[in-house]
Specification:
By secondary structure, this protein is of the alpha/beta class. The protein has two domains: 197 residues, 3-Layer(aba) Sandwich (Rossmann fold), CATH 3.40.50; 186 residues, 3-Layer(aba) Sandwich (Rossmann fold), CATH 3.40.50.2000. Helix content is 47%, strand content 15%.
Length: 422
C-alpha cells in the first residue's frame, strides 16, 4: 500500500518524534500504543469505539449511554489518543469493559491490538480515519462511522489526496453523518452513496446538568462572583485571553461589577491567562485558591467543571474561535439557555453555528473590538439577553434524538433483531 510505503520513506522524519513521545509515556500507555494492551476474552457482541480526545468522548457519551440502557450486558472497549481523552472516557464509561490508548497506525501494532480486543464491530466517531486500522479492522468485522463530519479544513486537504480517502471510505460499512453537507462531502471524497446516512449531531444529546436556583447560588459562592453579571469564556486558546480580558474591561464601564470566568483549553496555559488578566488591569483568582469577592476574573484551572459553570453565565464566549482553530462546543452553554458569542472561526461546529445564528441565539464577531461591543450590548440589555438565551435552549431541545439513531445503527450490527426481542 502506498500509505505504508510513504510511512517507511518518511520514518526518519516522524520516527524520532513518535518514539520520543512513546518513551515519555508510562509503561502501560507505551505498550497499548504498540498494540500490546490487555487481551480480552472472546465475545460475539463486543463493540470497539474509537475517538481522538475529550470532544469525541463527549460526543460518544449519549450514544453509548443509550446502548448501555437498552442492553446493559453489552461489552464495549474504548480507545483514545490523548491522556485527557482517556481520563474523559474513564469518567464517562465506568461500565466499559476496557479503555486503552489507540495503537500507532502501523500494521504490526494494529494487528496486535485487534487480536487483543477481538471486536465484533468497530465504531469510529467523527473524523478518526486511519488507513491501516480501517483496512485491517474491516477484514475481521464491520466498521461504522458515527457522528461523522467533514470540516472545511479537512475537505480542502482531502482534495489533494482523494484516492487515499476513497480507498479508506471503501472499508467503512455505513457512514452516519451529522448533516447533509457532511454527507455530500463524504460522497464527493469517494464514499459509495448507498453507505451514507444523515443521522444528526449527537452533541445535542449530551447530558447537561441544568442548575437549580440553589445550584446557581452554590456555584456563584464557590467562584466568589456574588450576584454580579458573569461572562464565561470556555476553552480559550493562546491569544484569546487578551481579547476576553479587554472586552471585560470595556464592558465593566457600562456594566458595573461584571465578573468573568476563563477556562483555558489547556491547563498548562494558566500562568499565561493570569498575565493577560493583569495586563488588562484586572484582578485574577484561581478557582482552586477559593473564592475572592475582590477578583474580577476567575481562572477555572480544573478539569470537568466548565459544562456546569456555563449554567451561571449571563453570556458565554466560545474559545478557539478568534484564532484559526475551528471553534469549540457551543451546545453546552446553549443547553443552559445562555446566549453565545464567538469569533469568525467556527469550522468545527459549522452547521450548529449557522443554526444558532439563524435562530438568533448567537453572535459572530470578527475581532476583539467587536467582541467587547457584542458582550456589552448583551449584558446591558436584559430583554435581548433573555430572548437570545431562550432561542438557544429551544434550538438544543428541538435537535435532540441523534444518539438514539446512532445507537440503533450499532445495535443492528451487534445483535440480530431476534436476539434483542428475547
Amino acid at each position: 500500500m502506498g500509505y505504508n510505503a510513504a510511512l517507511t520513506l518518511l520514518s526518519p522524519v516522524w520516527g524520532p518524534y513518535v518514539f520520543k513521545r512513546l518513551f515519555q509515556s508510562p509503561g502501560s500507555a507505551r505498550r497499548e500504543r504498540m498494540g500490546r494492551g490487555a487481551e480480552l476474552p472472546p465475545n460475539p457482541h463486543r463493540l470497539w469505539l474509537h475517538g481522538a480526545s475529550v470532544g469525541e468522548m463527549a460526543a460518544a457519551k449519549p450514544i453509548l449511554q443509550v446502548i448501555h440502557n437498552k442492553v446493559p450486558e453489552v461489552k464495549v472497549a474504548v480507545s483514545t489518543i490523548t491522556p485527557t481523552g482517556r481520563a474523559a472516557a474513564e469518567a464517562s464509561y465506568p461500565w466499559a469493559e476496557d479503555i486503552r490508548f489507540f495503537p500507532l497506525d502501523v500494521p504490526s501494532a494494529v494487528r496486535k491490538s485487534l487480536n487483543a480486543v477481538k471486536p465484533a464491530l468497530v465504531a469510529i466517531i467523527e473524523t478518526e480515519l486511519w488507513p491501516n486500522y480501517l483496512y485491517l479492522a474491516s477484514r475481521r468485522c464491520p466498521v461504522v462511522l458515527i457522528n461523522g463530519r467533514i470540516s472545511d479544513r479537512t475537505f480542502r486537504k482531502a482534495g489533494t489526496c482523494k484516492a487515499l480517502y476513497t480507498w479508506m471510505l471503501s472499508h467503512i460499512s455505513v457512514l452516519g453523518m451529522q448533516t447533509q453537507t457532511d454527507a455530500d462531502r463524504v460522497v464527493q471524497l469517494g464514499a459509495p452513496e448507498d453507505t451514507v446516512r444523515v443521522l444528526g449531531i449527537s452533541k445535542f444529546d449530551e447530558p447537561v446538568k441544568t442548575l437549580s436556583e440553589e445550584g446557581v447560588a452554590r456555584w456563584r459562592d464557590v467562584l466568589g462572583v456574588g450576584d454580579w453579571p458573569v461572562i464565561v469564556a470556555g476553552s480559550t486558546f493562546s491569544g484569546e485571553d487578551e481579547a476576553v480580558c479587554r472586552a471585560v474591561a470595556v464592558a465593566r464601564s457600562v456594566v458595573p461589577g461584571l465578573k468573568a470566568v476563563i477556562a483555558p483549553r489547556h491547563l498548562e496555559r494558566v500562568p499565561e491567562v493570569l498575565q493577560a488578566i493583569r495586563d488588562a488591569g484586572l484582578r485574577g483568582q484561581l478557582r482552586t485558591d477559593g473564592p475572592n469577592p475582590e477578583a474580577d476574573v476567575i481562572v477555572l484551572n480544573t478539569f470537568g467543571e466548565l459544562a456546569e459553570v456555563y449554567g451561571i453565565a449571563d453570556a458565554a464566549f466560545i474559545g478557539k474561535s478568534l484564532c484559526s482553530h475551528g471553534g469549540q462546543n457551543l451546545i453546552q452553554p446553549m443547553a443552559h439557555g445562555v446566549p453565545v458569542v464567538y469569533g469568525p472561526h467556527m469550522e468545527n461546529f459549522r452547521d450548529v453555528a449557522a443554526m444558532a445564528e439563524a435562530e438568533g441565539a448567537a453572535i459572530r464577531v470578527q475581532n476583539a473590538d467587536e467582541l467587547a461591543g457584542a458582550l456589552t450590548d448583551m449584558l446591558s440589555q436584559p430583554e435581548l439577553r433573555r430572548s437570545k438565551g431562550q432561542s438557544a435552549r429551544t434550538l438544543v431541545e428541538r435537535n435532540r434524538g441523534a444518539s438514539e439513531r446512532y445507537a440503533n445503527l450499532l445495535l443492528d450490527y451487534l445483535y440480530p433483531v431476534e436476539e434483542l426481542a428475547r
